[in-house]
Amino acid sequence: MTRVAAVDCGTNSIRLLVADADPATGELVELDRRMIIVRLGQGVDRTGRLAPEALERTFAACREYAAVIKEHGAERIRFVATSASRDAENRGEFVRGVLDILGVEPEVISGDQEAEFSFTGATKELKGRADLAKPYLVVDIGGGSTEFVVGDDQVAGARSVDIGCVRLTERHLVRDGVVVDPPGPEQIAAIRADIEAALDLAEQGVPLREAHTLVGLAGSVTTLSAIAQDLPAYDSVAIHHSRIPYDRVREITEWLLRSTHAEREAVPSMHPGRVDVIAAGALVLLSIMERIGAAEVVVSEHDILDGIAWSVA
Question: Are 226 and 234 in contact (CB under 8 A)?
């Protein structure tokens, strides 16, 4: 067993996994998994830069994670940064801050690398499941980008496109610094147009419609599962490998798009940091399901973070 620490810093959240990994048996024993919403990608789509306050929120989370990693005595650390830091002109400032706090340099990975990590993390434990037909389409709906990966035991095709719940919300639903609540038909149509264009792009390199099982990852999807199950609180055990039928995804998405901030905030399983961006994330998932004709989505709590941990081990 090798004790590893994996950090995934995305557009909306930064997450940590400390685990004991045994590459010989394929076993990953989770010791600590946590998430903090820092909104690192605040304004990046508009300004091209990481905002000072967003950097400070992220560095504060890194300091908390450094203490957890030290407490568990992880032998190896890998810090992966995704969409927002890929796009930012001042990502050097971000890199220096993380290096000072954690002692490792964040790797600003490509969308294709992000896709491969997501696929490994999501599908490693699905092998041998007779009820889930291959090939899989793994969809990781992040804050700034969405990764599409099709594969059986190996990745057959992968593509990252710039649609995510934060990017779409900031691009179409923010007026004078405030999220429009709820959005009007024209704004929803504009988000839909961006998603459809991105799906056209993804289909140029990835055979989305050849997949037999859709696997959905990340906070927008897991929160939809919690809502679908009417959970009294967010419960990762109940959410992991749950299945949401297409009709239920459509019903919840339509409700999210017509709801107010207060109504979404009142959902007991909703993280406060997702209240304003969850509708856009849900619309991405719904559009994907419609594009490929998926009857359901299998929800996974294991994702890019687990893939990063395996890469360290």
Answer: yes
Residues lower than pLDDT 50 in the chain: none
What whole-number distance in Å separates Cα of residue 295 and Cα of residue 247? Answer: 8
Please state the pTM of the whole predicted model: 0.80
Strands 146-151 and 136-141: antiparallel
Taking a C-beta distance cutoff of 8 angstroms, is the pair 115, 158 a contact?
Answer: yes
Question: What is the per-residue DSSP string for 89-118?
Answer: TTHHHHHHHHHHHHSS--EE--HHHHHHHH
Q: Angle formed by the axes of helices 246-258 and 278-292, to 10°?
A: 150
Contacts of 147 (CB under 8 A, 6+ apart): 111, 114, 115, 118, 138, 139, 140, 158, 159, 160
pLDDT value of residue 221: 95
Side-by-side strand order, sheet with 13-22: 27-37, 13-22, 2-9, 76-81, 107-108
Residue 103 is predicted with a pLDDT of 95
pLDDT tens digit sequence for 206-252: 999 999 999 999 889 999 999 999 999 999 899 999 999 999 999 99
H or E stretch covering 205:
helix 185-205
Other Cβ atoms less than 10 A from the Cβ of 232: the count is 9
| Residue 25, pLDDT score | 66
Q: Which token pair is 91?
A: 């990502």
